[in-house]
Write a structure and sequence with these properties.
This protein is an alpha+beta fold. It is built from two helices and three strands; from the N terminus they run βββαα. The mean pLDDT is 87. The structure holds zinc ion (ZN).
Length: 91
């Protein structure tokens, strides 16, 4: 082994978001993970929603906002069309 080029190999405590902790060895002393073999659906056999920091809610909020913007735009367009040709109203 050449000296001075290898990272230090230290005991590492791994903390999962489910609360499970275990010790292994790594070049880092602490690891924080979202899934481990104690809570991953592949090992537990149970279905689980893996939602990191409210991503689903954020997506639903964004979707609702874009739909509202689209309908507002459509209403604006309809109003502009009605202004241009008040006699030829289509609805
Ligand atoms: Zn876990």
């Amino acid at each position: 082994m050449k000296t001075g080029i290898h990272p230090e190999y230290v005991p590492c405590s791994v903390h999962c978001s489910c609360g499970h902790e275990y010790v292994t060895r790594s070049t880092r002393s602490v690891l924080r993970v979202e899934l481990c073999s104690e809570c991953h659906p592949f090992y537990t056999g149970k279905q689980k929603v893996v939602d990191t920091a409210g991503r689903v809610e954020r997506f639903q909020r964004r979707q609702a906002a874009s739909e509202a913007a689209r309908s507002a735009q459509a209403a604006q367009k309809a109003a502009a069309a009605a202004k241009k040709a008040p006699a030829a109203k289509k609805k």
